[in-house]
């Protein structure tokens, strides 16, 4: 029966995992990292990024974060020291942590090129289609990626008047709140042990947001709908709660469902990804 002292090891220190009715020895480094992460022993966003240094930090972003912590708009100059950066977990042993890189880095994709958003607006309803309206690799820090991806949605989705003034820009055909909450969750809660991007796909009949990594630990779709959460990336959640319109209380999916009840959540454990599908209104 399943125990709690994971990962399981034999007397020689080898790690074993279940595979169907059988078991196998775990030798792949990436799989071991994911297993330790699932067990709450390792947090990927606290890992050190090799070859980085304090020169890779954009200090204005750190100042913005400090002012957000203190809820201060004062113009007093803030001195950024290595000790301060270490206390904020932006750096560790003179190098950036993954969380520090993704929120305060000058060019995060220089060191982690796959940690971006790949966004495509297709003609038709098939991912196998070769024609598309628009395609963009969206890079930068997590807040920058969020803003640019929302811009991609606004550009590639229809706007409707919905009773507004003729001269107004109209509102998006799907809930903007739902898009914001799902996208933030995809960026903040994704599995950063997987070297792959968040994917945003717009089809004629739906929108799909796919983030690497299935739900952590024993979380289920029903848990998530009720507002339950397991924090996979502590640093990123902490930074995001100050630098984004992100609360970090696990209530994002609840708000998304309240504003877009027909969205579909799919926890693809076998494919190690989490998919959200938002149907687009039928064209009249």
Number of helices: 9
Helix content: 25-40%
Mean pLDDT: 87
Radius of gyration: 21 Å
Strand content: 15-25%
| Helix and strand sequence | EEEHHHEEHEEHEEHEEHHHEE
Main β-sheet, in a few words? 6 strands, mixed
CA(first)-CA(last) distance: 55 Å
Tell me how many strands there are: 13
Uncertain stretches: none
Structural class: alpha+beta
Write structural notes for this entry.
The chain has a 6-stranded mixed β-sheet, covered by helices on one side. Strands 1-2-3 form a 3-stranded antiparallel β-sheet, with no helix packed on it. It is built from 9 helices and 13 strands. The chain is globular, with a radius of gyration of 21 Å. 30% of the residues lie in helices and 20% in strands. By secondary structure, it is an alpha+beta fold. Helix 4 (98-104) packs parallel to helix 8 (234-243) and helix 6 (176-188) packs antiparallel against helix 9 (252-259). The model has no long low-confidence stretch (mean pLDDT 87). The N and C termini lie far apart (55 Å).
Characterize this entry briefly.
This protein is of the alpha+beta class. The chain is built from nine helices and 13 strands.
Topology:
Blueprint: E1 8-9, E2 15-19, E3 22-25, H1 29-38, H2 59-70, H3 82-87, E4 91-92, E5 95-96, H4 98-104, E6 117-122, E7 132-138, H5 142-156, E8 159-160, E9 171-172, H6 176-188, E10 198-202, E11 206-212, H7 221-225, H8 234-243, H9 252-259, E12 264-268, E13 273-279
Parallel strand pairs: 6-10
Antiparallel strand pairs: 1-2, 2-3, 4-5, 6-7, 8-9, 10-11, 11-13, 12-13
Helix pairs in contact: 4-8, 5-6, 6-9
């Amino acid at each position: 029966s399943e125990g709690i002292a994971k990962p399981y090891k034999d007397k020689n220190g080898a790690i074993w995992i279940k595979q169907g009715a059988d078991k196998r020895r775990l030798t792949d480094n990436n799989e071991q990292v994911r297993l330790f992460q699932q067990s709450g022993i390792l947090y990927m966003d606290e890992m050190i990024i090799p070859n980085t240094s304090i020169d890779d930090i954009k200090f204005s972003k750190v100042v913005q974060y400090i002012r957000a912590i203190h809820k201060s708009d004062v113009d007093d100059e803030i001195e950024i020291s290595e000790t301060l950066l270490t206390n904020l977990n932006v750096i560790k042993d003179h190098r950036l942590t993954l969380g520090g890189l993704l929120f305060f880095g000058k060019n995060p994709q220089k060191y982690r090129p796959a940690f971006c958003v790949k966004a495509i607006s297709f003609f038709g309803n098939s991912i196998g289609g070769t024609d598309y309206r628009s395609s963009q690799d969206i890079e930068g820090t997590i807040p920058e990626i969020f803003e640019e991806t929302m811009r991609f949605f606004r550009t590639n989705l229809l706007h409707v008047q919905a009773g507004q003034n003729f001269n107004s820009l109209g509102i998006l055909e799907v809930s903007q709140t739902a898009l914001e909450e799902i996208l933030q969750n995809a960026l903040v809660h994704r599995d950063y042990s997987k070297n792959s991007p968040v994917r945003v796909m717009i089809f004629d009949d739906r929108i799909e947001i796919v983030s690497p990594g299935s739900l952590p630990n024993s979380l289920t779709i029903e848990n998530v709908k009720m507002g339950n959460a397991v924090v996979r990336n502590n640093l990123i959640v902490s930074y995001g709660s100050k630098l984004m319109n992100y609360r970090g209380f696990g209530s994002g999916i609840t708000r998304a469902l309240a504003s877009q009840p027909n969205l579909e959540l799919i926890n693809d454990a076998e494919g190690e990804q989490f998919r959200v599908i938002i149907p687009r209104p039928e064209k009249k």
